[in-house]
Write a structure and sequence with these properties.
This is Sugar phosphate phosphatase. It catalyses: beta-D-fructose 6-phosphate = dihydroxyacetone + D-glyceraldehyde 3-phosphate; beta-D-fructose 1-phosphate + H2O = D-fructose + phosphate. Its EC number is 3.1.3.-. The protein is an alpha/beta fold. It has helices spanning 25-54, 66-91, 106-116, 131-147, 159-168, 171-186, 191-207, 221-228, 232-239, 247-255, 271-285, 308-325, 328-343, 363-366, 368-374, 384-391, 403-406, 436-443, and strands spanning 242-245, 260-265, 289-296, 346-350, 379-383, 418-423, 454-459. A 7-stranded mixed β-sheet has the order 1-7-6-5-2-3-4. Helix 6 (171-186) runs parallel beside helix 11 (271-285), helix 7 runs antiparallel to helix 11 and helix 12 (308-325) packs antiparallel against helix 13. 45% of the residues are buried.
Amino acid sequence: MPSRSDLAPHPAGVSPLCGNQKGTFAYTTVKDRLPVILTKCVDSISRELHAATTTTTASDASSLAPLAQTERATEGKQIIAELSKLVYELQRDRPLQRINDTEEDAASWNSVLESLGGKEGGPATWFGTPWLFSECHMYRKIREIFVVTNYWKDHDVFARQQKEPSFWGSVKSMEELAKHVKDVEVSTLDEELKTHVLREFVQFSLWGNQTDLSLLQNVSHADMHKLQTSTSASLQQLEEKIIVNDSKLLVDAISKIKNGRIDFILDNAGFELYADLCLADWLVHSGVAKQVVIHAKRIPWFVSDTTERDFYWTLDAIQQHATTIRDDTLHSRIQTWRAYLEKGTWKLTVDPFWTLPYSFWQLPTEGGNLWDDMCTSQLLIFKGDLNYRKCVYDGNWATTTPFSEALGGLNNPQTPPLVCLRTCKSDPVVGLRPGQAEDLDKADPDWRVNGKWGMIQYQARAAQ
């Protein structure tokens, strides 16, 4: 029987952020951002259908027989109709609909939906439901629309029009970072310099999140390169933008790990994934990690989140680019990473939990074998804003709430040490000093959501 671990009321007595709270980013997201994302999905399918009738190479339909192409086109039109219906219902705050496909997670989604309810005992609606649930529910409904078809089951509606162009807009940054990785690998470094390099790679991993596609829908390739390219001097400037900086605690903890296991719970594909893999590479090279376990999403999620397909597509695309421009350094990096995967030094894993309607407070109770396995790790690295929201249950916390308190059920002796590397793109923030939020409000009124401020929050294993 699926759990009824609902998201409201909040288990710590903190009110959940909801889309009906005007003046919050939750309201802006449900009102404006989610309809735009759905509309882009409609546009993407329309382009696919147009390509299928005008070219033999630009569409997934190119290898199909004529009858199958016709059937695929009919399904594509139905997908557009269903996505448009979803936009209509969302904008009018209609009740959230059950998941009606046969995927194994449908029962869990529907159980949580039933437990939520809306105002005065009515059904849960798009704006009246906790934001974390309604936003995740939208992506799960998108999955349903595709998975019930014959020809679009495995189609990632975000890949061709959004993820892939973002990747190709980032290759110059990838080339430069590959050179940096090579330079530090072949250099003779004392412990102080190794610590400096580790802090560098942590920051590359942190700030790679600035190019989240669900927020930066219209960023230019030149702007993206500027965001991603950082020298040591500019990293020092960026460090001033880290409003909670536990990097010393993190580095001290990592320095005590020898040939251990470190887990990455991934966020975005594209440059952020690449920066994460550079950090994972350094952890192996420096003797910290004997194994790095990399957790990707099972289905397309929050536009830019990394799926298994994205992971391998990225390696193939980088290798293709390196061959085209004859970049031996970049090519060698990919060969190293493929060797890690073949030997099991790196392990890519996909578990349904990461796209279930639960916060990470429920990992110990709902995570099953995933959680049992993760507890053998020496460090959990949670990447990005959504993972941060799920770690702190997306509550309307006071900003001075200790991180350990906001972690709730995740803060227990069984949980390995963990760190959140997050650029701020939503309302929940904890662990600030008294008065710090007020100072940030004056310096930058949009500091919570514009991605210009970062957090490195570390939590040691809780005492027995």
